Structure formats: structure tokens, C-alpha cells
Give the backbone structure.
Amino acid sequence: MTTRRILVLPGDGIGPEVMREARRVLDWLQRRGMVDVECAEGLVGGASIDAHETPLTDEVREQALAADAILFGAVGGPKWASIAFDRRPELGILGLRKSLDLFANLRPAMVFDALTEASALKPERIAQLDLMMVRELTGGIYFGEPRGIETLAGGGRRAVNTQSYTTNEIVRVAHLAFELARKRHGRVCSVEKANVMETGVLWREEVQALRDRTYPDVTLTHMYADNCAMQLVRAPTQFDVILTDNLFGDILSDLAAMLTGSLGMLPSASLGAPDGAGRRKALYEPIHGSAPDIAGKGSANPLAMILSLAMMLRYSFDLGAAAELIEKAVAAVLESGLRTADIMQPGKARVSTSVMGDAILRALERPASAKG
Ligand code: IPM
Ligand code: MG
């Protein structure tokens, strides 16, 4: 087995707390000889601002470029809320996405059987939910120029952001969505606002042309983003792969996450283009963010971070069996009735971040008996 270099960036808020538990899982796999990794740890976001006055140092950027994969916690918090906009903690993650050209963000939303009751929707609406959101991650309004806030001569100010997409930016992420659909249920729903935005028109045309050219076996539908939000709440199991732009994907993936019971459950993978050897730059992070309101209390749910580690094993290291082991351990622990506060239900046992981590390790040790 080749040694893989992982850059670990816990970040801010609950990031370090949930990362600690993911590291324990990784150490366990390492002790068992199931993975061979070398971890380096760095600062990012607010933690990096405090130490180095920038959310992303050149050194960490270089380390990220050299790593085989990055495990990322979360960034941001009220402590840095008044910092100038161009130096905010969020630029830590946005800078990494851009520097590594991680243009495709995979956000799976699946429901663990034990959690159907924790969803904001009725259990029958979400039974069997298993959708994959593919969000474009390095283009669109997050990065478009011009941008800024100007002071108007006549008084008042004017703020500008620019949504722009090129054929190449659309096609490369669409390729990935179609490839994923082939391994799933063969359906892609492409989401934009072609009724009001030119970027939506181009998005729709390019995605359709790519489907007709290269993926005739995949069923492609198109949906306006507002309708998609409505359909995700009305009948979420209609979706297989949802392909959408950066901003709509940010919003719709939070919505999709809540269908599964909690933001605290969902992992994500951000991938770049494959190199000559077929390897992609990749960053894995939970989608929940830094949750400053519960940071430091030991009550955060580490499962999204642990499931992000599983995604890393599957997508970056081709260790599907190890990933499955982790996912089964998570399912077993949920079956056994343990819950962190965010997924607490009547009659279940509320546990802390580290006790949840302990339970995952126990379930890994004894896969069959973990249910008891
Ligand atoms: C996410 C987050 C980020 C985003 C923030 C932290 C910049 O909300 O990953 O969804 O908006 O992309
Ligand atoms: Mg978001």
C-alpha cells in the first residue's frame, strides 16, 4: 500500500471537536492496517487569522496542493464577524477550493433508517431518500467579477456581484454528474433559473448538449431552482442526481440536508479534474459549518465529519470496503439509540461528541454486536 498524505484542517467552532473523533476513526483503521496515511495538521479560517492574520497562509496552500487529500472541519464565527470582507475566515475554504480548482462538490443526502423520525418531513416522504447533489464550486456568483461595494456620488452605496459561467465550467461538472448517475439510478435533474438568467440559459443548453452527445443512456430533466426547492420538500425521492450551480447548490444542499434529519449528518467531497494517473485533488468536509452557538460544549455531532472521512477513503483512495465499514458503524450506533443533541428523539440516549466517537470505535471493533 502506498502511504497517502492527508492534510488535516480542523478550522473553527465545532471543527476541531468533530475532527478529533474522525482522527480517532482514522487511527483505528491505520492500526488495523486498513489504511496507510501520514497526517499533517494546519490552521485555517479564524484560527489562522488569530495566528497569522490571514485565513489561508501560503504554507497551508502549498501543503494542500501537495497532499493526496484534505480533511476539513469548518470555518467562521462571531469572533471574526467584523473583519474586513476580503480577509474573512470563509476565504480559507473559498481560497482552497479555488487554488486547487475543486470545481465539483458532491453532497449526498441519504436517510439512515434509524433517523427517519428525525426528519422535518413525515417519515413516508423521506423513506428510501438517497439523492446526490452535485454543486459547481469554483464559478458563478461566488467568484464572478466585477464585485464590490461602491459609494455613490449622490449618496448611498451600490453593491455588485456577478454571476458568470463558461461552457467549460458547466461541461466539466456536468460530466461528473452524468458519470455518477450511471453508477446510481441513471437520472440527472439540472437546476438553474433559465427563465430569468442568461447563465441559466447557457447552463441548460450545455448540459442538454453534453447529454445528447455523450450520455444518451442517462435521463436528463431540467428544473427551475425555486421549483426544485419546492419539489425537495414535496416529493424528495423523485431525485437521483441534482446538478446545479454554486449559489443554488449552496442553498439547496442545506435544504436537502435537513430532509435527512440534521445538517450534522451530511458529508461532502470537493473534487478537481483527474490528472494523468486519474487522481483528483480532493477536499472532504461536513456541510454543517462551524456552529459557533454550540462550539466548545462537547455536544456537536461528529458523524458528518466521520462520514466525510469515509468519502475520502472511497473517492480518493479507492478503499470502498473501509468506507463501508465506517458507514455501517454509523448506522449501527444510530440503531442502538445513541443521539447527539441535533438528532435527539424521545426515548433515545443523548450523548456528547466524544461518547458518540467512542461508540463508533466500539461498533468498528465489533460490527455484529454493536446493535445490542
Ligand atoms: C458551504 C458553506 C460555504 C459556502 C461558506 C462557509 C463559504 O456554506 O460549504 O456550503 O457558502 O460555500
Ligand atoms: Mg452552505
Observations:
- The mean pLDDT is 95.
